[in-house]
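User: I'm putting together notes for a lab meeting next week and I want to include a structural view of one of the chains we've been expressing. I don't have a solved structure, so I'd like a prediction I can at least talk through. The sequence is below, exactly as it appears in our construct file.
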Amino acid sequence: MYSKDESSTIKQTFWTTFGQYISPQLSADSLKVNWVNYKTGIKHLHFKMETANRSVSIGIVIAHPDRGIQELFFEQFTELKTLMKNTLGEDWIWALHDTDEYGKTISRIYTQLDGVSVYNRADWPQLISFFKSRIIALDEFWSTAQYSFESLK
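Assistant: Thanks for the context. Below is the predicted structure for the 153-residue chain, given as structure tokens.
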């Protein structure tokens, strides 16, 4: 078991390593982007990569405090589901009004990889591969899809 400081250091080292690995990759619009802290340009809408003890996940998180507005965003993504699946090349999990680790109501569209750990350096190549391909595909999807959300800004 790791102390809180050790855990934080390991995660920080992983994200730094991932950031250095992916930083040469330009966005779908040929722009330099901070992949680890991806900005969608819409408040309360995030692309989030997370590590847990025995799994990792990547997804779209809709964190607007108004549940009705969360539903509007979620419905808009539903309208783009075919484009999203075609761009990502896989089905993701769709969760309207889920709860995050702080008990806050969020909605999210995500995928996860089980049986891996950020605390096991031997898993890092698999984690990097998992995150890299999906964040690049999400960026490609968002390059087209973002215009559908202009009225919800």
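A couple of points you could mention at the meeting. The mean pLDDT is 95. The first strand starts at residue 45 and ends at 51.

User: Perfect, that's what I needed.
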